[in-house]
UniProtKB/TrEMBL annotation:
PANTHER family: GLYCOSYLTRANSFERASE, POLY-BETA-1,6-N-ACETYL-D-GLUCOSAMINE SYNTHASE. It is an enzyme of class 2 (transferase). It comes from the Bacteria. InterPro entries: Glyco_trans_2-like, Nucleotide-diphossugar_trans, TPR-like_helical_dom_sf. Its EC number is 2.4.-.-. SUPFAM superfamilies: Nucleotide-diphospho-sugar transferases, TPR-like. The keyword Acetylation does not apply. Residues 5-90 form the Glycosyltransferase 2-like domain. It holds the Pfam family Glycos_transf_2. Keywords: Glycosyltransferase, Transferase. One of its GO terms (molecular function) is glycosyltransferase activity. It comes from Paenibacillus aestuarii. This is Glycosyltransferase.
Amino acid sequence: MISISLCMIVKNEEDTIERCLNSVGDLVDEIVIVDTGSTDQTKSIVRKYTKHIYDFVWVDDFAMARNYAFNQASKDYIFWLDADDILKEKDRVSFAALKETLDPSVDSVTMCYHLAFDEFGEVAFSCRRNRLVKRSNRFQWIGSVHEYLEVWGSILNSDVAVTHNSTHHDNDRNLRIYENRLSKGEQFSPRDMYYFANELMDHGRTEEAICCYEKFLTSGKGWVEDNISACGKLADLFHKLGDQQNELRSSLRSFEFGPPRAEFCCRLGYHFLQQNDIQSSIFWYNLATQLEHPKESWGFANPACSTWLPHLQLCVCYDRLEKYELAYQHNEAARRYRLDDERILQNKRYLDAQLTGSKWP
């Protein structure tokens, strides 16, 4: 059985660190904590779990801090988490089984990262990350912000999921780092330009974000998943500005980088529904029901767009055409995914009335 070092970088995480370590501490053989300047009770809490606590002077570089943490590890494999991540019980079981059975020839194990949930507790936003890596390979983190772990060799895609459960966040930190780098005359890589655009978008700096996404896409050097994501974010920004033409163009632009994704089919379905072009809307929503997020893709995914959402929208479309039987069928398809969604239940009551000729309030 392999041995595992958990490596984390933290700062002022007293509200979350105990929850995180409780979820994983008994599954690893060593816990390495690198503190980048906590002024709260973080280190006092961590001492209950490990003696391997190191101070690191923060220099606005996440990769440098993570690489330092990795350098302190001593076990066969390194597992990394943020303080507001946890393993849920089913994933604890899967992690334990993985530890028991992992072939030591594997260089990296990927895990799903569940970032957001809907009102029913279902995953609404997720991606995949390299999470467990062979220490002897000395894999390195790259990037001062939105850093990534550069790996190679034999990679196993596991069924373990890490759940992000944030309670607080320094919303300006990443933007400050990027702007400080720009003020020093640094030329951004395409990846940096993409994430800088994300920060500008999140801070409501719409026009600047549009310019950055355009600069990123026209460079022709971006990672395909970032290219596709940038198209979606541009569509959102143009929607915010009420620019329907450029919103449509941005959604269609995603097809330059790969086959249609369900998320973009739903965007197009919504666009044509707003134009009252019901047949075009039906075409795109129907296509969305036939597509799943590519299994080998590492990009962000919204499962709703390939499950219940297009069926719910098709129900709306067919209702407008007074094709109540088809509307009912799609509403039932949506209900299979969300049994307690009041919108879907309301539709069912309404369509039951339409199909039986009974009175509808």
